Amino acid sequence: MKAWLPSLLRLALVVLLVAFVTNPGWFEPLLKPLTENNAPVIYNQGSLLTLTLLHLRTVLIATVAATIVAVALAILVTRPAGAEFLPLSRSLVNIGQTFPPVAVLALAVPAVGFGEKPTLIALFLYGLLPIFENALTGLTTLPANVVEAARGAGMTGWQRLTKVELPLSAPIILGGIRLSVVISLATATIGSTVAAKTLGEVIIAGLLSNNLAFILQGGLIVAALAVLIYDGLSAIERYTARRMGREAE
Amino acid sequence: MNIRFDKLGVVIAAIVAYAAFAAPFATFRANRIVPGQARSILEALPATTGTLLLAIVVAAALIALFRTPLVLRLAASVVALAAIALLIGVAGTFLTPAGNTFARVSPASGFWILIFAFTLLLADVLTRLNLSPLARVGVLVVAALAIGLLLISGSWDNLSILKEYANRADSFWAEGSKHVTLALGSLLAAVVIGLPLGILCHRVERLRAGVLNVLNIIQTIPSIALFGLLIAPLGWVATHVPGAAALGIRGIGTAPAFVALFLYSLLPVVANTVVGLAGVPRAANDAARGMGMTDRQRLFGVEFPLAFPVILTGIRIVLVQNIGLATIAALIGGGGFGVFVFQGVGQTAMDLVLLGAVPTVALAFAAAIILDAVIEMTATKRRVETA
Q1: Which domain covers residue A142, as residue numbers?
Q2: Residue A237 belongs to some domain of the structure
Q3: CA distances from residue A101 to A96, B326, B361 in whole angstroms, order as listed
Q4: Which residues make beta-bridge pairs with B26?
Q5: pLDDT (tens digit, 9 = 90+) per residue, B309-346?
Q6: CATH number of the domain residue A148 falls in
Q7: Is residue A30, in this structure, part of any structural domain at all?
Q8: Quick one: average pLDDT of B66-82?
């Protein structure tokens, strides 16, 4: 395979995605065969562009919050003062992953009401786990000689953390963020079962009115977003990994 | 001798103090959908019992707060959890007016936070005890038996979630068995197809990137969309392929849910098979070849056993993920515990949501513990054998 082919495919996907969410009408003939009884072909209860942006915003807020909390926790339990919490935090992460997203969503509703909030809570909780796990791996598998050298150079604990440990772990932490974003993009669609404004709305409208065109357009936009963001974050990861001289996972 | 605090214990004691004294223990509602009234521990229980519960909870929190022997901490967490679990049932009976079948009593935030705090303590003790895999499964069995006993004894019968259950006992077990069938059946199908596919990808390098890419892309399709997209092709199969409809293949219902779960399950199984086989030491393969083993003998006698723990890890991911995802099958008429979750969300009846969510979480949790134990056992066995 030629080296430029993947980049070209990616560019084509970006163009296609932007064209679809801004001008869905252009694609009407393509999706027309999927509908029956003259049902609408393009989602008509809201703009696809707005829903896509709201979807991305929900995922972004949840991921940023999850990253801050997960990395802070990982730093805490890898310091001498927090070392006691390390084994427990590992088991908690394991337990947390067994909670199905639908259950978290449904249980958050009585506490915070319908809409975006329960979705943010569910995405935040799901986002925490992969990032925390990767941050732990990154911070606990640092090359011992580098940490020793930093200590020998007279760096304080804070300096070692910000100048040595975190930069060296960055590629692995980014790997966790990438996983968490891809999971969140798909999980956010489930948020529409509790009335969050995401692309799930389009899919659920399709399920309820038996309109395959709706399901397909909602699903494909989410999948395209996930593939593109995954690729983008992988590229950033490889770049930082090269700079840090560590192999990306 | 100076008194030393346990760091985690400080956190636990703070949570317990809030939950026991500031948060409501139970919620009372005149019927199943009106907003509830909060009841603290002393309001929710007869005076002596309430004081007893407070005393137990405070004592257990104090044991957690200071550095105490592990056995004592274990006993404290178990006694506290048992007392809270037993007495929430008593609260249900105490708060329900005699003969009133509409009133609902459900556990409130204080109850859940107390359970969380003492489970945290228990988890910490169990982690520090570094139990063997078998012992962990043993703890799980004992906990399951205790909960089963509480359920059978009827001491929780006056709690709202069990009243929802009583109204739907038949469909609960029917949906439950559908849920398990969906999760386990699709896993089984994924193993049957995924293992040979993984072995093929390991042997034929040109195939590997392509297959893994396709499976990766499937994972990015949101579950509700994939469930929906399969409705059309399966509907077509049902009407056009003779015998398909007789096999239970339909556009909506269990069939698309099964296929969707199967497709999601393939990636972890195939990817872990490839990684596991790639991790087989070259020396082991060379030795096997030198002994004159055929490719087939080498696969089953050497490569496969060595790669087994990694493949099992993939199966664990799939099983836990499937148990969670199967809840979404309810959206397309596929059944499972999701039926109660979505009905409950629709009726804003949270007890009904819990009736679907609690068994799902319990199943996923039990599956994770059991498979983790099995993985650890096969991995240590392998280490002993190769040492």
Answers
A1: 48-244
A2: yes
A3: 11, 11, 10
A4: B39, B107
A5: 889 989 998 999 899 889 988 888 888 999 999 888 88
A6: 1.10.3720.10
A7: no
A8: 92
Q: Which residue's entry shows tokens 């975006």?
A: A116
The rounded percent of chain A whose pLDDT value lies above 70 is 97
Which of B342, B336, B34 has the alpha carbon at shortest distance from B160?
B34
Residue range A87-107: average pLDDT?
79
| CATH fold for domain B169-386 | MetI-like fold (1.10.3720)
Examine residue A181 and state whether it is found in any structural domain, yes or no.
Answer: yes
Q: Domain locations in chain B?
A: 7-167, 169-386
CB contacts < 8 A (A, B) = 145
Interchain proximity A218–B229, CB inside 8 Å: no
- Report the chain A residue with the minimal C-alpha distance to residue B231: A212
To the nearest whole angstrom, how far is the Cα of B342 from the nearest Cα of chain A? 8
Distance from CA of A198 to the nearest CA of B (A): 12
